[in-house]
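cron nightly-structures :: item 1 of 1
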Amino acid sequence: PKSDDYSGAALAVIKPHVGKKKMKKLKKAEREKTKGSDWYNMPALEMTEERQRDLELLQMRGVLDPKRFYKKNASDTIPKYFQIGTIVDSAADYYTDRVPQKDRRQTMVDELLADAEFKKFQKRKYVEIIEDKSKSRGRSFSRRRKET
């Protein structure tokens, strides 16, 4: 019944020999592509400049809102494995809890830079820090500041 009958002789498949160290290296590279089955094989996304900025912003989120407290980050490094989602507005929150179409931006950094209230707060804090430094350091700080 077999159409590919070679009278008992199967075709020989020749595989190149891979050493133990080389095989170990290949398996490790394959494992590092995803987070693992416990994390549903979350892939390591390509790190673009926009994603880098957004992740840095998330790590410094404690500075964004002075009235809100955030727990300390688990690590100081930017994560290798992460996912990005899109917030889908609910129809029930149409008038109360949504961002209008004209206020939406591509990234979180762009959204913050467009927010006037955030800019005002950050400017005020920056001026306070500069004044505090100038008082503590005296003339050397102000002279250095004028030169630049």
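cron nightly-structures :: done
The helical segments are 20-31, 49-59, 61-64, 108-114, 116-137, 139-147.
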